[in-house]
Amino acid sequence: MNNGAIVGINWGDEGKGRMVDLLTDHYDLVVRYQGGGNAGHTVVNDKGKFALHLLPSGVFRPGVVNVLGNGVALDPENLCLEMEDVRSKGVAVSPENLKISSRASLLLPWHRELDGLEEARLADKQYGSTKQGIAPFYSDKYQKKTVLAGELFYPEELREHLAQLLEWKNLTLTRVYGAEPWTMDKLEAWVFEYGERIKPYICDTHILLRDADRAGKRILFEAQLGALRDLDFGIYPYTTSSSTTAAYAPIGAGMPSIRIDRVMGVVKAYSTCVGEGPFVCELFGEEAERLREAGAEYGAKTGRPRRVGPMDLVATRYGVEVQGATELALTKLDVLSDMEKIPVCVRYRTSQGETDDFLFPTLLASARPVIEYVPGWKCDISAVRRWEDLPRAAQDYVNLIQSAVGAPITYISVGPERDSYIHREG
Ligand code: GDP
Q1: Ligand 1 neighbourhood includes 36 CB (under 6 angstroms)
Q2: Which of 67, 166, 329, 394 has the fewest CB within 10 Å, making it most exposed?
Q3: Domain 4-101+201-264 has CATH 3.40.440.10
């Protein structure tokens, strides 16, 4: 059982960061394999509270090698800012413990600009982008119209490549959006300034992972966002622009043939969803406000209030299937401690009747949740560390979820701190 993945089962913000931070103890390498700086993992440990956007969560563990794989949207400017930020709080980041894939594509500043321009064009029909340039970046990557990090080592060829991209990109900027064109001077200055800073970290992560795997080192793959934001399996088009699944992890990391033995799916004890898109189990009004406050549900990157709802068994079961989760971590159980009775979405109601299965995206907008209530436990559980010490009603709630979604819940977290969790055998 060498390699593992930690992935989100729902819409993201499930608490993956804290689980990676906890489990990195058992791994030698932690790899980010998709996504960019558009979401944030929050990690609370002995060094303080951190909102990580691009850096892998293993960065806090001495001896762990952190990797940004070819599948990530590598924004050198934001990565440099993030490195400075964690360093200022006493966390060591150096070419020893951070490796960037030479095959990772660079997110260029015009991707952020285009993200903003497109959201402005969409006006009241926005996708709710974080405007970090992720969608324009991935479209350019698949059009083969951006540069690889490894090209920074070949400045002459890179200049030529940038000139071609500039000509093409300016057509879109000026003729489609009526924006100002980029100049070669401005583009080169940006690329070479941030490029020089990240160059010491760039390497061939295929070789790195191959050799680590052969040497019996343990590799942990860390996802950003959840199954329901996956480009292929999520609530399209309100998805992210990359694959958030465990199945994609070896590809986005740099070693497609690597085997993952353990897939830990992270599920929150209730539901949250940032931004636009169908969210069948959504709560509104005072009930929503209470849950949002209790769970401090505001975006790590944007500060936006998150939409909230009860545990959605339909979406969670689907997420478990999409991720191939072999076990689950149920986070933030303590947030529900004040509730007299706890709502659970057990099925969806559609014009065709009730269903246990997640729906095609178009049908989600008109589906309604079928809600059942289970008894709350009405006491503080944040100091509980053993399963047997959890109140009976809390145990029943955990077991209900486990049997409905089809994977064992092996970790239950009851507070944001590193040691606020209960472990039980699967
Ligand atoms: P991620 O992107 O999946 O890592 O999720 P977030 O960064 O949104 O993390 C979830 C938030 O909940 C963070 O602020 C965590 O510190 C916090 N958190 C994680 N686990 C728990 C828990 O068990 N109880 C409470 N109260 N907060 C938690």
Answers
A1: no
A2: 166
A3: yes
Average pLDDT, integer, range 400-424: 96
Q: What is the mean pLDDT of residues 168-177?
A: 96
Note if 28 is an active site residue. Answer: no
- Spacing, Cα 201 to ligand 1 middle (Å): 29
Produce one character per residue of 267-304: b if its CB has 16 or more CB atoms within 10 Å, e if not.
Answer: bbbbbbbbbebbbbbbbeeeebeebbebbebebbebee
Pairing of strands 98-101, 202-203: parallel
Can you name the residues that pair with 348 across neighbouring β-strands? Answer: 355, 369
Q: Is 416 in the pocket of ligand 1 (CB under 6 A)?
A: yes
Q: Is the domain 268-423 a CATH 3.30.710.10 member?
A: no
| Residue 268, ligand 1, Cβ within 6 A | no
DSSP character at residue 175: I
Q: Taking all residues of the chain, what is their mean pLDDT, rounded to a whole number?
A: 93
What does the pLDDT average to over 68-79? 96
In Å, the largest CA–CA distance within the chain is 67
**Residue 132 in contact with residue 147, Cβ under 8 Å?**
no
Taking residue 220's Cβ as centre, other Cβ atoms within 10 Å add up to 27
Burial of 208 (0-12, 13-18, 19+ CB in 10 A): buried
Domain 105-198 has what CATH class?
Answer: mainly alpha
